[in-house]
Design a protein that fits this description.
homodimer, alpha/beta, nicotinate phosphoribosyltransferase, six-stranded parallel beta sheet
Chain lengths: ~450, ~450
């Protein structure tokens, strides 16, 4: 099912507001910014992802003839407005942080400046894309921090929320520091390295576990990983030891064994001993089954002899934080700054820039959210928002995903130690994000002028 | 981006196992069943959804030429296996519960019987589709139980995990009892009623809130809902009262006001009084903003004068339970029952049927999971699994979504009172699901015969 490219993948009010703007002849330039109001419980930073897909969406946005025909028949918009939609395109400017960048609450990660009908309309899908990809990239980064030198593979497709989540989750996981994914389509679309083992069903379809091992090895001699917990994990390990000489005689090397159930620490220790005693110390151990950054950290802290982890459901659903308080808000219209003042949801007005300062050792020292037109706060500060579209066109071709992934790794390396910890909600560290005096004055002025 | 229809939207191991089965000449009939091992914390039942999409997937499954070309170039499968994939189709039988049915842990909701290469291959996408749709339908059902007679609208697109989640979430929400959705594409694809209001940005783009109200009303005189919390909720309500006579003079009736921030109970009471005093008792109040079944229940229990609710993020991500322990397991191969015995993950073997008994008042009295070939446990019991595909073809055209929605409503009406409560995890009620003696004997036999 083709879903993501459709202009109708939006909220009804985007269309009815578009009709109202058209009726009023309102076509002034609007500035909208995408940002997270507050980080989820237990998160001390977020890792940005999904910008590439957001730009793709803006670049290809148009109503297909079938969509226009349906809109005419549905009767929720007037026919003259539907007619205008045939020529609807995004012609605006977009600035964004680079994917893989670390960011914090109240920092715009993407800014759209366009005629208000366009800038308003794209809200729903922009949030839909960036919210999810950022959740998964951030969860992946936390797993990477928990296991800096182990193999991490995304197993999240089956419990991801639909097809696009499976695909874009794999992309975000790799961006955030995973080594690869099991999702084949992500290999095709994004060039992400693919990893795979075998399912319990394969073992069960054979009369004897050892026959299943032998036949799979014959069929897949490269990167061979055997799953040993279908019946009894340690018995499975002994069967591998029993089988290994025959495989070696045919030039087949067993790469790894996968454990998927029970007490992974205890099983890993016992299996490691069985393998070492059986002359298979080169065979690596790979664990899966309900893992997340906390369980990985606990296993490694306990000294589990595990060389890699498959992380599925908790990664692809960002299970402990399945959504961000990510919003897309009007900050200026027709050259005048705007401020929403709803209780608990007030915004910082005006088009903004985020400036970041690094300490002498390269680590992040503090951010400043300022008005776009303010001077740089000093020569040491870097601007995080960069032009990505001008006049509806990309400023540059998309960066290779591997480059964004390297940027993410560099960003994680620059995180202050306090932010690298897997803090729980109660002890989470807050990074300093300051609001510039000029921006504070502007907000106060708008509040005073409010009627 | 087209994702859901692609054969490559699967886990790598499905392809490598397929190669191994092909190498071994294993083409016996396999029986796989899709079920939930245990319900999420805080859930006493689940409402099934996503079967229609699962059947669509099976019916259209094939590798496109571009996918085959990529597989050849990727080198993970041998060329002769890739060549065979060109003719790969699903030719098997599928039985499933009807969408909208209530189900419980360990009950197969869908059974696939097909040559093992086919039956195995489809695992990843079947879980991906049914897991998510069922989560949202179940969450929607809980919202409906919390608010039996209020308007409930899905606002979940923007925080759903990608495009397909937005679309299929809207479908599942309507199936589960919602009145409609804001997601336009769901209106086009599934005929779901669409609802929409206006965004804060629309208000802010105007110099005065009352001008925004007046102009939106002129542009959208039907089903008019005004958002009143952009600056000050009660002041917004007063502006509506001020504006109403001029609108009425032009034949425009204000349908509802939306509250989206702050203490919704206190605001709703104050706004209701302002409207009633202003002669607008027919104007309804609609609330949104971080709502879920618990907050709705609390608002209604406190007597909040709210006529409807927009439920977004918590619905479309099933935020308190963002995944099910849903699995797809081999239960028989080549006529012989199979049993996975992994610690904590053992399965009930064999092809099965689920029988349900109703009490005299029509409410659900208890379920029995039995072997498919066992006789019905009594004339009062109904079989829940029905044929949906035979030989890879649909047995009947897809049922209209409205009929499935009516079935879901009837199912909720048949829930025992204890299961209709929004129990928390500690007090959740367990419905009796019995395992037939013959099935228990079979499992014990397989364990005894295990080598």
């Amino acid at each position: 099912m083709n879903t993501g490219d459709q202009a109708l993948l939006t909220d009804l009010y985007q269309l009815t507001m578009l009709q109202a703007y058209a009726d009023e002849g309102m076509d002034g330039q609007a500035v909208f910014e995408l940002f997270v109001r507050s980080l989820p419980s237990g998160r001390s930073f977020m890792l940005l992802a999904g910008i590439e897909q957001a730009v793709d969406y803006l670049a290809q946005l148009r109503f297909a003839p079938a969509e226009l025909a349906w809109l005419r028949s549905a009767g929720r918009l007037r026919a003259d407005v539907v007619d205008r939609l045939a020529a609807f395109r995004f012609t605006g400017n977009v600035d964004a942080m680079r994917e893989g960048s670390v960011f914090f609450a109240n920092e715009p990660v993407l800014r759209v400046e366009a005629p208000i009908m366009q800038a308003q309309f794209v809200e729903s899908r922009l949030i839909n894309l960036v919210n999810y990809a950022t959740l998964v990239a951030s969860k992946a980064a936390r797993c990477r921090l928990a296991a800096p030198d182990r193999l991490l593979v995304d197993f999240g497709l089956r419990r991801a929320h639909g097809a696009e989540a499976g695909l874009l989750g794999a992309r975000a996981a790799w961006l955030g520091g995973f080594d690869g994914t099991a999702t084949v389509l992500a290999g095709q679309r994004f060039g992400i390295p693919l990893y795979g083992t075998m399912a319990h069903a394969y073992i069960e379809a054979h009369e004897r576990e050892i026959d299943a091992f032998a036949r799979f090895a014959a069929s897949q001699p490269e990167m061979l990983t055997l799953l040993i917990d279908t019946y009894d994990t340690e018995a499975g390990a002994h069967r591998v030891v029993e089988l290994a000489p025959a495989l070696a005689a045919r030039g087949i090397r067993i790469g790894a064994l996968r454990l998927d159930s029970g007490d992974l620490l205890a099983h890993a220790r016992r299996v490691r001993r069985i393998l070492d005693a059986g002359g298979l110390s080169a065979v690596r151990l790979f664990a899966s089954g309900n893992l997340d950054e906390w369980r990985i950290a606990a296993l490694l802290a306990a000294g589990a002899p595990l060389d890699g982890f498959g992380v599925g459901t908790h990664l692809s659903t960002s299970a402990d934080a399945p959504f961000l308080d990510m919003v897309y808000k009007l900050q200026a219209y027709d050259g005048r700054p705007r401020r929403k003042r709803s209780e608990g949801k007030a915004t910082w007005p005006g088009a903004k820039q985020v400036w970041r300062t690094h300490a002498g050792d390269g680590s992040l020292a503090g951010d400043l959210v300022a008005l776009r037109d303010e001077a740089a706060p000093g020569s040491a500060a870097s601007a995080l928002l960069h032009p990505v579209m001008r006049g509806g066109q990309r400023v540059a071709p998309a960066e290779p995903l591997a480059a964004l992934r390297a940027h993410a790794a560099a960003e994680l390396a620059r995180l202050p130690a306090a932010l690298r910890r897997l803090d729980d909600a109660a002890t989470v560290q807050h990074y300093p994000v300051h609001i510039s005096p000029a921006l504070q004055r502007l907000a106060a002025e708008l509040d005073r002028a409010a009627h």
